[in-house]
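Blinded run. Sample ID left blank on purpose so nobody reads anything into the name before looking at the predicted structure. Input follows.
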Amino acid sequence: MPTATTDLQSRCRLAARQTEVLDAMLAGRVPDGFDPRGVHRSIRILHGKRASSAARAFPPLRRLPGWPEVFFAYAGEGPKRGCSAEDAREFIAWLRCHAARDQRRWIRAEEQRVGIRSGRRWWTWSSV
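Blinded prediction complete.
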């Protein structure tokens, strides 16, 4: 019969493994022992949720050429840090270095007219 100590140790190992699996998936990698097809489907869902969240914080992202695929490339490079508005800001900063010609035109056009919000707070493009 398991003791309270072994039960706690088992839960800690499980929590560590779950964290390892989720971290790998958020980075776009297939964790050891998992079906690659299923994991890639799950990764796409996770990145899609993250893209939707960023687009809620900054709605003009939905008009970006290549949206949401270009965001998935960004999301695969690292985990979300902070709120969705911060994620949108970091994505736009990333996009400035990785954008295709039509996406650079979109950035210039949006710089002229919008900001990024988080709750009641707005960021201007100059701070992106």
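Unblinding after everyone has recorded impressions. Helices lie at 4-26, 36-57, 69-75, 84-98, 101-111.
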